[in-house]
Amino acid sequence: MSVLLFAENSNGKFKKAVLEAAGYASELAGKMGVELHAVSIGDVANDELSSLGTYGVSKVHTITDAALNTFSDQGYTRAIAEVAKAVGAKSVIMAQSYNGKSVAPRVAVRLDAAMVSAAGTNPAIEGDSLVFQRSVNSGKGLETVKTHRANSVITVKVNSFGLKENATTAAIEAFDFQSQDSDFGAKSLEVVKTASKISITEADIVLSGGRGFKGPENWHLLEKIADQVGAGTACSKPVADMDWRPHHEHVGQTGIQIAPNLYIAIGISGAIQHLAGVNSSKNIVVINKDPEAPFFKIADFGIVGDLFDVLPKISAAIEKVKAAHA
Ligand code: FAD
């Protein structure tokens, strides 16, 4: 028996969301009194595979079928389910990433397992059941979910559990799995990167702009600070609708939901639909010229001021601090 982590890689590296899911899986395996194993699919160097040991993984099963170097939801589903069966997985854990969201329910069907998405805390164990609490309705409610299967598939909400180490040594073992034509109902032909350098679902800091910017020509003010502090960039819905910014930056009820350590909202009013995507952020800073802007009600810190005046000052201050510490 074990808990199995799907250790998804991105160009041969495990992102923070996967390491977070590993810590989550390790805690769950501890509660269940079983080992934590992981499955890695595609080309990943041994050093990187071994690094999973830091988060409690005692064995990594590797599948290196070249056809699976590019993500395939059907192929990955079959591969993960095969490993889960082989290691007697009580729970299969993965990050709530795009790929995780795609394969988790499929794996659950294959394993006849309960499926719980977007878990932020570890469940209580009641016999064969797991009892979860998770936030729903854009953070306005707390739901209790109980599983009714002997096994489960769980996706872990990104940036909600934190990185928790539980160091052990991870053995690496090849798993015999061959992909088949039927694993590729749809095949990725090419990936062209269009997103900002830092993914906003993974970023520690996100700078976000709204209609207060007046037009796309002013975004350099936000981008400059984002570059200075290594932040991801996001925007409100109307900004994406007007094509001032690309749609993948749109956060909110109808956009991406994020939970960075620091969310800085600039020239955004704070409509309920916007807040739905960002109210799990650990710290919120609002910059708005209207002191009555609704966003100030949920802000940890606020600056009432004109962004065209405030942003260059922030940028200059960061420059000064960096120079002093160079
Ligand atoms: P505005 O509401 O126009 O606010 C601009 C703000 O900038 C104002 O507060 C103003 O005081 C400030 N400002 C102006 N000039 C300056 C300046 N020089 N310096 C500083 N501050 C300045 N919205 C989302 O963002 N995400 C969603 O997912 C989403 N989903 C929706 C779903 C539905 C079904 C509906 C009906 C709406 C949805 N919306 C969503 C839209 C949402 O209701 C708001 O209309 C939108 O969030 C407003 O965007 P904004 O704050 O950029 O613009």
Layout of helices and strands, plus pairs?
Layout: E1 2-6, E2 9-10, E3 13-14, H1 16-32, E4 35-41, H2 46-50, E5 59-63, H3 73-86, E6 89-95, H4 98-111, E7 114-119, E8 124-126, E9 129-136, E10 141-146, E11 152-156, E12 171-174, E13 205-209, H5 220-229, E14 232-235, H6 237-241, E15 262-266, H7 272-275, E16 283-288, E17 301-304, H8 307-324
Parallel strand pairs: 1-4, 1-6, 4-5, 5-12, 6-11, 7-11, 13-14, 13-15, 15-16, 16-17
Antiparallel strand pairs: 2-3, 8-9, 9-10
Helix pairs in contact: 3-4, 5-8
What does this structure look like?
By secondary structure, the chain is of the alpha/beta class. Helices cover 27% and strands 26% of the residues. The protein contains eight helices and 17 strands. Strands 7-11-6-1-4-5-12 form a seven-stranded parallel beta sheet, sandwiched between helices. A five-stranded parallel beta sheet has the order 14-13-15-16-17. The protein has a three-stranded antiparallel beta sheet with strand order 8-9-10, with no helix packed on it. β13 (205-209), α5 and β14 form a beta-alpha-beta unit. The termini are far apart. Flavin-adenine dinucleotide (FAD) binds at residues 210-212, 236-239, 252-255, 267-269, 271, 273-274, 277, 288-290, 293, 306-308. Flavin-adenine dinucleotide (FAD) is lined by residues 210-212, 236-239, 252-255, 267-269, 271, 273-274, 277, 288-290, 293, 306-308.
